[in-house]
Write a structure and sequence with these properties.
Elements lengths: L9 E11 L2 E11 L5 E4 L6 H11 L11 H11 L7 H10 L2 H23 L3 E7 L10 E6 L15 E3 L8 H14 L10 H23 L7 E5 L7 H9 L2 H11 L1
Parallel strand pairs: 4-7
Antiparallel strand pairs: 1-2, 2-3, 4-5, 5-6
Helix pairs in contact: 4-6, 6-7
Length: 264
């Protein structure tokens, strides 16, 4: 049920009591909007937490036996289990993801991309590809760009790690202050999980930065800012889902097929 690439995932929790033939049991239900049911924890060791979460959602009509989600039932489920106090820790976590700072950051990214690409284009009129390097797979502390030129080789590569031109200083580098601020606020509400390389919240933080960059690039593409060039998001340390996702969202079908052939 949990979808890692879902754009608007939010987290909340609710304590409740269930009474059955074994007596009363106190439970904590934790889930992330809008996909619900990521985790279900019990105070009693050995209780089948995942099974009970699924049973609860089946009972509420949120999902059917095939795993299909009913949007209306889902909204009702969210309404029932999200009445957290606005001053609670869970509410503060939700507020972090809903904060207008994310929209402000997207606008900052868009403006920075415009300035950055204009600087590149001024001295490199034959730009063939442009990429935003959005940190690493496990963290985002800064962003910068890379680009390729038609004159680089007879058949320019679409694999960013092959490109010769990297631009680490400039408008995108100035985003570092906002990223640092967001990361610091994140640590206030989401303590480090010492038992996981990257937990769901850390993945969501990285995805939020990537979504901001993707949204900015898509808007600029739709506005006609970019000419017929290859666009993508890339990471410093390897392959993740945002790379092919961004390629498909930002380029023609012909360019996507060409990329997929080279990316295998």
């Amino acid at each position: 049920i949990y979808k890692e690439d879902e754009k608007d995932i939010l987290f909340t929790s609710k304590n409740f009591t269930i009474e059955d033939e074994n007596g009363k049991s106190d439970y904590l239900l934790e889930f992330e909007f809008p996909t619900i049911g990521k985790r279900f924890l019990s105070r009693k060791p050995g209780v089948g937490s995942w099974l009970f979460a699924i049973k609860l959602m089946l009972y509420k009509g949120v999902i059917d036996i095939k795993g299909n989600i009913d949007p209306n039932a889902m909204n009702a489920f969210i309404e029932e289990f999200s009445d957290v106090d606005v001053n609670s820790y869970a509410a503060q976590q939700i507020a972090f993801w809903r904060s207008s700072k994310w929209e402000d950051f997207r606008l900052q990214v868009k403006q920075a991309i415009v300035k950055d690409f204009e600087e590149i284009k001024a001295s490199n009129p034959d730009v063939y590809g442009y990429a935003i390097i959005s940190g690493e797979s496990y963290q985002v502390n800064s962003m910068y760009s890379a680009f390729s030129k038609r004159s680089d080789e007879s058949s320019p590569s679409l694999i960013v790690s092959d490109w010769e031109h990297v631009k680490k200083e400039g408008p995108l580098d100035e985003l570092g202050a906002s990223i640092k601020e967001q990361n610091a606020e994140f640590k206030q509400f989401f303590p480090e999980n010492k038992y996981a390389y990257l937990d769901a919240n850390e993945r969501m933080l990285i995805a939020s930065y990537q979504q901001a960059v993707l949204a900015a690039l898509m808007e600029l593409r739709e506005e006609g800012f970019f000419e017929d060039i290859f666009l993508t998001i890339w990471l410093e340390d390897g392959r993740t889902s945002i790379i092919p996702l961004s390629v498909k969202a930002l380029n023609s079908k012909k360019m996507v097929r060409k990329f997929e052939k080279a990316y295998r």
